[in-house]
Amino acid sequence: MSHQKKNSLVRGLKGAIHNPNVSEEAKQRDLQRLQEMGEDITGLTGASSDFDAQDEGRSADPHIFLKLDQHEDAMKQVTKQMLEQGEEDMQRSASAASADLDIDMNGHSKTRVLAGYKATLSNPRTSKAAKAHAEQVLEEYA
What we know:
Blueprint lengths: L2 H16 L5 H13 L10 H11 L5 H39 L8 H13 L5 H14 L1
Pfam families: Con-6 (PF10346)
InterPro entries: Conidiation-specific_6, UPF0654_domain
Protein name: Conidiation-specific protein 6
């Protein structure tokens, strides 16, 4: 194993040992692996136990959980209001866009639909019946 790869592996193992989201089993396995690689583990063995001892020494403020719940409720309320406001804005934008584009009830732009009928008249591969229908539609909107 190259020196650079070994250093990267050692850093990863040490990081895992200090990570509170890593299980104790994995931390012990990583310590053993570091020891097998000849690394000094004297300062690493108590990393997780020191953290636990610090937490046990503190007394939690019983009101902090109430404060957290209130904060969470306030955040939910603000998020709900933002979503509702966003929905209203989107509906307003959609109605303004449909007015600008002259969109019919099926969601089609009348201008584009009429352009399609006009194109039908000049297409040599279109049947006579389709051309007659296109003429009729264009006359209604003329």
